[in-house]
């Protein structure tokens, strides 16, 4: 196999030190299974460009104390951008996953000039704020084609649009685009050691999203379309979905669907909103609570099918909608367990709190995970060594 470029070793060093904390060059070489000379060469550039800093010394076997290297976190950041049908949300995130306050800009992604506006906003943001950017990560509800150059998303109104190239051209920075829920799974793998196992991540809210790992990698499928749980059939006679099919799970339990049903059932007045539905349930409105319980049941059944197919060791439930998870839960757990065989019913389920910065943080993780992404998929930093070795 061809030898890996030095650039990949630099990225692996950033990943390794970012995950483990300060390291000596000798330890980095040992952990990455490469020669100390190569590490010395790579770290020279990284120190010169301010990505790594010498932060002190530690005792070493040879007697002479070893110099420790650490990431210069305050200088090196990524811009994480989340694209939704009606706005862009972005923030700067450091290597440890700490995000600045999220900025939101209204934008209709189906408008004729939407791509140009996105590029202009991102390029503008690139020059705002402190610190140099390592790259830009964009998370969107949809999929990339096999080449990674064309974006398709029914909910955004895009079919094979060349957004990645436009952004690279405008910013000159490395740009990484990924399905939004995949980005969350990549962030989870990057930052949460407890999730370093086969897991499925499901989001509820505007849509119903899903990402899952196979082995150590987020699985994308042949066309980047894996995990479209929201578009699996839930009701053959159901409503028309934004994707053009009928009766998708999203047409039953995504935010708009629940709100429309609440209006139809007289729980909310005409023009009622999801926030009002949440408030009604919180105030103890029995019909609102029953609607959420029913939604939980639909989700539980769908996830039982997913568990049958991929057999994860852990289910993570997240997304904007988990703010009212306590109303979904009474329907969810019984339905999930009822559709699983006895020996799968103890499946671990984690409900992950949702913050305003979660999407942008996930998008930024695409940049930090990029050295691993380039070899075909994402993985945790603990895999740095084996990946580097694979190509060496
Ligand atoms: Zn659909």
Number of strands: 16
Give the N-to-C terminal Cα separation: 7 Å
> What string gives the helices and strands in order?
HEHHEEEEEHEEEEHEHEEEHHHHEHEHHH
Mean pLDDT: 85
Q: Give the helix level as a range of percent.
A: 25-40%
> Ligands bound here?
zinc ion
**How much beta, percentage-wise?**
15-25%
Judging by the overall fold, what is the CATH architecture of the largest domain? 2-Layer Sandwich
Shape: globular
Largest sheet: 5 strands, mixed
**Gyration radius, rounded:** 23 Å
- How many separate structural domains? 3
* Low-pLDDT windows of residues: 1-6, 372-392
Summed up, the helix count is 14
Structure description:
With 392 residues, this protein is of the alpha/beta class. The protein folds into three domains: 6-72, Winged helix-like DNA-binding domain superfamily/Winged helix DNA-binding domain (Arc Repressor Mutant, subunit A, Orthogonal Bundle), CATH 1.10.10.10; 76-188 and 357-373, ATPase, nucleotide binding domain (Nucleotidyltransferase, domain 5, 2-Layer Sandwich); 195-351, ATPase, nucleotide binding domain (Nucleotidyltransferase, domain 5). The chain has helices at residues 6-20, 25-32, 36-48, 114-127, 163-171, 180-191, 250-253, 255-264, 274-282, 286-310, 325-338, 358-368, 370-373, 384-391; strands spanning 23-24, 52-58, 66-71, 76-83, 87-94, 103-106, 132-140, 143-144, 151-153, 158-161, 175-179, 199-203, 209-214, 217-218, 314-318, 348-351. A hairpin with a 3-residue loop joins strand 4 and strand 5 (87-94). Helix 1 packs across helix 3 and helix 9 (274-282) packs across helix 10. The chain is globular, with a radius of gyration of 23 Å. Residues 1-6 and 372-392 have low confidence and may be disordered.
